[in-house]
Description:
By secondary structure, the chain is mainly β. It has one domain: Lipocalin, CATH 2.40.128.110. About 10% of the residues lie in helices and about 55% in strands. It has helices at about 1-10, 105-115, 185-190, and strands at about 20, 25, 40-45, 50-55, 60-75, 80-95, 125-135, 140-150, 155-165, 165-175, 195-210. Strands 1, 2, 3, 4, 5, 6, 7, 8, 9, 10 and 11 form an 11-stranded mixed beta sheet that branches. The termini are far apart.
Amino acid sequence: MLFLLIMASSCVDKSNSEVQKALVQAQQSQSKIDLLELDTIKLDMERSKLFWKGTKMRGAGSHEGEVKITQGFMLKDKNGFSGGKFEIDMKSISITDIPKTDPIPIKNLTEHLMHSDFFDVDNFPTSEFEINEIKIHLSENLEVSGNLTIRAITKNITFSAIQRGNTISAQFLIDRFDWIIAYEGSWADRTLVDRDIEFRIALVLDKAKLE
């Protein structure tokens, strides 16, 4: 029966197959920038959002939720945004696709995500993304490159983003094995749960500037 389920799942297209996959490289050093010529702009913590989605059996099933951005800023020069950084509270992981009327499945999945096989939030309570470079291709189209740290593992990722007004948004995939998420987990974690994690992010800038 398990064999038939796996074979059937191989015929199902991944629900996130059209989402860009971030280019993953070794950790990169910060680009040389003159901080004296930059404005530091806070993120609006109420409106800045980070959503996640994971699939299983080649997209046959999925779960999704939110994790909170706790603090962050963007750097801006005369040409536009050039860098930034934000932190993520891994203990804030929430599930949004299971009805609140089913508290037990929500509790079980949340605990599973927080366990050492996945994000191991007791040992690694925060993650962060430090933006090293932003290339502006068109007025709204950006290419963002920076160091993503999860579970104390840092790798550089590059992905496309869109800037509209005071909001920078992006949607991309990472391979969870690159950050050893569930690498030592059960056979089901390593085989039935898909490798990709999808992130949707909206960074909303606060009008107030830091000196």
